[in-house]
Structures are given as structure tokens and as C-alpha cells.
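Fold this sequence, please.
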Amino acid sequence: MSCIEHFKYYDSILVFPSHQHTSCEILYLHKGHISIVCGDDEFHMTDNTVCIIPSCIKHRIVIKDSDQYERTIIFLNPWTYTREFYSDAIYNMIMGFITKRPIVLKDDFNCLGYFEKIRRELKTNDILSEDAVISSVTQMLIHFFRSSGYLEEMMKKSDKMVFEIQRYIQENCGEQILISDIADKFYISKFYLTHIFKKQTGMSPRNYLTLTRLTKAYNMLHDSQLKISEIAGRCGFTSSSDMARKFKEHYDVSPNEFRKRILSKSKNNIL
């Protein structure tokens, strides 16, 4: 599935430092008690709650009791999703342009049912599965955002050029692209590019490019058939050591150790 980059039940990494993804993270807590820490704010999740963490929102998860911790997690790629379905309201929310923090809700709208539909379609993977996934994701997000009470905020507009620049970076992060190349592509100066990008996303285009590569590497490391060097090349890193250094800085674990933890608990993989 192109828009679902990652779908796992009870993912193997229990402890992360503060980090961020270019994907929109959707977390369902079946059982347990966790906190999502975002800056000075802490958002609590208990049994049968769901959380949406918009793209690029820095956060960390604190697990209160690992013995009682059961979750399903989805990484939604906003760019491939909005290529099939585009709504200013939903786009602004999942990109974090309006509410720059996680949103936690009790599952009073059968969110778990949408997770199950998405899971089935990922396993089916026929010619209609992508359409079915897009439909389930859209319905889930509509119910979620209506229940959250952020409809007025969701209608605010954002700079569409920044969205297109992000999409360009997503699609070309595997190449050795320069910020000046991106500026030329959109017929603007490098300084104006940096200004509008940082104003809307809170980070520079260069940092966003690195984060995009790290997010892609995070997802590709779940495929045990790919060599670390191959992943580094596909993600646009100059070398395996370059990827390892940046991955360790961001996730506080090396790519090799990350993969070992995944493989050691592969029996928990919902797919």
C-alpha cells in the first residue's frame, strides 16, 4: 500500500527518545497506560483510546507498564494519501500546520473497526485494496476530527507551495538533491524557500530532507531482506556510516540494533 508506510501491532521498540516522523502517526492503545510527551505538555492514553500525532511533531512515548501495553500503530504518508484524496481541512491537520500537538480521544466512533478494515486490505492487497484503504483512512479521520472539536481550526489555509516542496522532497529524497536545486525547481530563491518553509513547518528544508530520509530508513529496516548499505543508498545517505550516525542521533539506537529488536519480536507482527 502506497499511503500506509507502516502498520504494526505492538511494535518491538518500547523506548524512544524525543523524535519525529515525516509520516502522520496514528496510535491505538488497546490496553495499558502511556503518556505522549510533546514539549512541556503530556497527553495520557488508557484502554481503547486513539491518538493522532501530525507529521513532524516532536514527541516521545512514556510507557507506564510494559506488561500491560498493547497497541496498533499506523504511519500514514500524507503526500501519497492526499494524491488520491485532497481536503484542506484534513491535510492541514495531518501535516501539523494547524494543531502542532498530538490529539487523544476515547474511541467512541469505532476507530478500531477502521483499523481492522485497513489491516484486512493490507493483507488482501488486490487491485481495489488501495481504494479501500483510502476510504477507511478518510472515514476514520473525518470521525476523529469531528469528535475532537477542531473543525474551525481545520478550515484555516496554509501555503500550498510548502506542501508541494515537501512532496518533492518525499519523492526525491533518495537522490543527492541540494536545497538550491529545490529552490530552482520552484522558481524561488534559496533564502525565500528557507523562510516560507521554516515559517510553516518549524524546521529548515535541509533538516526536513534529513528527517524524510530517516523516516524512510525506519520503515525500510522492517524488511529483513534489505541490506543496511542498500537502505542507506535508497534513502539518499552518502554512506552506511552516515545513515548510522544520523539514525543513532535521532532514534537513540543504531540501525543494526533497531533491526535486531524488530526481528526478536517478529511474532507480534500483525501482518
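The chain has two domains: 4-154, 160-268. The domain at 160-268 is CATH 1.10.10.60 (Arc Repressor Mutant, subunit A).
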